[in-house]
Write a structure and sequence with these properties.
CATH class of the largest domain in chain A: Alpha Beta
Number of strands of chain A: 10
Order of helices and strands of chain A: EEEHEEHEHHHHEHEHEEH
Number of helices of chain A: 9
Helix content of chain B: over 70%
Radius of gyration of chain A: 19 Å
CATH superfamily of the largest domain in chain A: P-loop containing nucleotide triphosphate hydrolases
Distance between the termini of chain B: 49 Å
Shape of chain A: globular
Radius of gyration of chain B: 22 Å
Structural class of chain B: mainly alpha
Number of domains of chain A: 2
Structural class of chain A: alpha/beta
Helix content of chain A: 25-40%
Low-confidence stretches of chain A: 1-6
Number of helices of chain B: 9
Order of helices and strands of chain B: HHHHHHHHH
Largest sheet of chain B: none
CATH topology of the largest domain in chain A: Rossmann fold
Distance between the termini of chain A: 58 Å
Largest interface: A-B, 26 and 17 residues
Largest sheet of chain A: 6 strands, mixed
Oligomer: heterodimer
Mean pLDDT of chain A: 90
Strand content of chain B: under 5%
Amino acid sequence: MTMTPKLEWPKLEWKGVSKQFGANKVLDGLDLSVAPGRSLALMGRSGQGKSVTIKLALGLMRPDAGAVFLDGVDVTHQSESERRASFAGIGMLFQGAALFDSLSIWENVGFRLINADGVGRREARERAIEALGLVKLDADVAGLYPSELSGGMQKRVGLARAIVGQPSLLFFDEPTTGLDPVTAGTINELIRDKVTSLGCTAISITHDMHSARTIADEVAMLDAGKIVWRGTVAELDTADHPLVRAFITGRAEGLD
Amino acid sequence: MASDLPSGPLGLVAGLGRATLQGVAAIGRVGLFATRGIAAAFSPPWYPRQILAQFWEVGFLSLPVVGLTAWFTGAALALNIYSAGDRFNAETVMPQIVALGITRELGPVLAALMLAGRVASAMASEIGAMRATEQIDAMVTLSTDPRRYLIAPRLIAATVSLPLLTLLADIIGVAGGMQVSKLLIDLPPKIYILNTVDFITRWDVESGVIKSAVFGFIIGLMGCFHGDNAKGGARGVGRATTSAMVSAAVLILAADHLLTSIFVQP
């Protein structure tokens, strides 16, 4: 009997993805993949297409060319119902948390459970409070509304909402932007802790090198629509790419 | 952009062509949005809590404004009939004319215009703000279809609530006319009601209700469409709110003309 080698697909893969808005070509044949269980930080200057890269993966936009594969399946041209099924195990923390301001905190956290997974409201509330506990928020906040919380607390609620469904893939869009260093540090540690404990794959957009070092295993640098450098967090300090150096030193010398 | 256009008469033709294309594209976008919204309203999953919440917002909370509008309009109509009808001794048909005017035209149209101001704008601003703050994107990532969760409940609530509000407006409008007739010509309310009931036909009421269902759908559609297409942050949301209200009002009046011309065909 011959042994068939076990094939392992990347958890998520962008193959030759291009996206243009008017005359502005944001992504130009992007090739990027993330192995299961790895945490990747996607870095780059503003306007280089980091958010577009994630939105394409989430099916919020369609690419002009190329395809996005989730667990080896091309999700680019799936119908909306197929995509919803494919993306059932995905969680996303938005830059501004994107909490539903007409719903209470527990309803925000339990939104997927109630509206997509068919979980009863009582059980959803219990699981939402449990998820809030995982991000170090008291059950007291469950009945409050997003406008009654600070920015850092809203980010934690967003994180609780992202992880409540036990996702296998998590996205973080600028998770620490606009937060003070102490709160940002707490969010970074929570993200690292949850990604590790859930054993899921994570992709984070960040400008913050400290955040990238905390939450990621690998860093990919996006510039002019392509990945110009990729390496492990340990390789960051020895990288000689000018853009990586500029992000580490905070100086724009040697850049166009 | 205007700078791309050739100058002179050719530029005028090119501009006209571009505007026509943009207009046709906009009609196509609204048509597609409406089709998808209707499809979402008729296919599961449904969100009963959302539908009930919208009935509360669109229907119940509009009761005071629709009721007051109907009362004052019925009263003003009666005053006008009393004043103008005096020229050819027609004051006595005041109940009939008030009933006809309210049920066929003023009830459905004024209730719809009030809702266009109150509801279409509120829908556009709420959905527009959700779009601007990525709440709609978040909903997609939470495996929930915004068309079914946000759009369909609003379309259902607006289309069903407005006919009910119109029926109420018909009753209150007639009551407004009744009060004026009591004050001016001392017509007893009982006689006024008997005259109204004897004169009015079932179709007078039904045609108004059918119209108001169409108007309700227009209100929901314009509110949701402009909100969903809001771009450019707070300014974009403001623009969407205004566009929703204005386009709903204009389309209501256009649809009123079209439907009335169909209904009154000999």
